Amino acid sequence: MSQDQMRNSAGPLHTQEYFQMLLDGADMFSSFWQPMLKSTGRWQLEVAGLAFKQGQAALQLSRDLALCRTPGDMTTANMRFWNATTLQYAQSSKRLAASVARTVEAPILSESEVVSLLRKPRGHDVIELPNDEPARPAAVERKVA
Question: The pTM is what?
């Protein structure tokens, strides 16, 4: 292709529209999957918090067992441990279920958690040179990518 044909072709305008369409599709795709990814993050944080609490309960159990003098003290320490762990599991399971419920609702209710993306006006750039009249668009407008 010669230099004149490359300059006169309308290729960049078509490719700009094509890439704009691709980027709009990517925005739509990300806004659809955003609630699920947010819920996955909540799930992971909740499970990490539960693991931390379970670790603290296990350390407390080892401290309590080290101080035990009778079999009754050992039974009491184990009961406290299992009561603490079951309470922590119950609280975490409620929060995990709420996270999943919000994810299931999100695609149905389009405004639930999807962050609206900014839409930029589709215009073109104009370069103004000093000591000159403002540049005016020609009959065929060219857009800068």
Answer: 0.54
